[in-house]
Structure formats: C-alpha cells, structure tokens
Amino acid sequence: MQLQRIHHVAIICSDYPVSKRFYTDVLGLKVLAENYRQERDSYKLDLALPDGGQLELFSFPNPPERQSRPEAQGLRHLAFTVKSVGDYVNYLVGKGIEVEPIRIDEFTGKPYTFFNDPDGLPLELYQG
Fold it and tell me: Name one GO molecular function term (predicted).
C-alpha cells in the first residue's frame, strides 16, 4: 500500500468572512462547496487547489489561538508551488499583504518566501 497524494488540508479560522475572502479573492481558490452546520455553529468551505487537492476552511465559535510559531509541534506551515515567487510576491504586496524577503533554499537553489493568512497561519510560496 502506498499513499498517493494529500487530499485536503483543514484550516480553522477566527473570522470566517475575512478568511473566505482571503482564500478566494486574494489567493484565487475556487469554491467547491459551502455548508453551514447549525448544530456546531460552524461553516465548512471546500476550496479547490489547481492540482486537484483541497483546502477546507472551518469556522467554530471561539477557537483557541495557535500556541506559538513557527517552531511549535504540529503543522509548521502550508506551502504552495508558484511559477515565479517574485511575481507572486508583487501580486500579494499589491493586495496589501505583507511578505517576508525572498530567500534561496540552500539545498535546491530555488527561491521561497513566507506570508500569513488572516489568522497568522504561515503560508509559503516555493518556486516550482
């Protein structure tokens, strides 16, 4: 048996409309489904990634904040492949998103950088 690929990544946000706008309008992800679960007072938004994977965006009443970053146990960051890190950085900056300086991966020689979603979740851009 062998794992084939990541099916989805689930993210819990603190402000659903703000995060929905960020992931759809800024990052350009397509909405596959949006459901409100009344018994949990929670939204679940399924977003399509270009490679067939998905992001699931959840809202819950009063979720606890992320404990520390970036070296806490658990998920460190979510990385996206882009054709040009520099071009995507310019796009994000034009949308008012703060982005760290571009670095070069010492092992691959490829450029990468980090920025945050509305809840401070570290997101990486990696040149493919």
Answer: metal ion binding
